[in-house]
Write a structure and sequence with these properties.
Number of helices: 7
Shape: globular
Strand order of the largest sheet: 2-1-7-6-5-4-3
Number of domains: 1
Number of strands: 7
Order of helices and strands: HHHEHHHEHEEEEE
CATH superfamily: FAS1 domain
Radius of gyration: 14 Å
Structural class: alpha+beta
Strand content: 25-35%
Mean pLDDT: 96
Distance between the termini: 35 Å
CATH class: Mainly Beta
CATH topology: FAS1 domain
């Protein structure tokens, strides 16, 4: 079974995410044993950010790394696991709200495809970049 990075690289909807993970030097972390739960924004999700945001982040690697690690949670949490909680703590350290009462919401994003298993965790595809605060 492929790992989280291999799944992202093989999917054409994650080109921006893969470029950001590479720029922030997080590839090795996300290829490690984990397990991790990744809330993975699609290219369309990144495209919703204000113009110039991605360029600015690529020039500010510490901020980019904070945003990316805010999309990662330690442990393998399937939708059924997340449905039992109101929030989880990201690898970045800040909480992420979870709402499975009507669909599958993660902070300001909707999970459009969940429970994609990897050998070192699980990916939940989201339609917005989730931001701290």
């Amino acid at each position: 079974m492929p790992n989280i990075v291999e799944i992202a690289v093989s999917n054409d909807n994650f080109k921006t995410l893969v470029a950001a993970v590479q720029a922030a030097d997080l590839v090795d972390v996300l290829q490690s044993e984990g397990p991790f739960t990744v809330f993975a924004p699609t290219d369309a999700a990144f495209a919703k950010l204000p113009p110039g945001t991605i360029t600015t982040l690529l020039q500010n690697i510490p901020q980019l790394a904070r945003i990316l690690t805010y999309h990662v949670v330690s442990g393998k949490l399937m939708k059924a696991d997340l449905a039992k909680v109101n929030s989880v703590i990201s690898v970045e350290g800040a909480p992420i709200s979870i709402d499975c009462s009507d669909g599958f919401e993660v902070k300001n994003a909707t999970v459009i495809m969940g429970d994609i298993e990897a050998d070192n965790g699980v990916i939940h595809v989201i339609d917005n970049v989730i931001l701290m605060g």
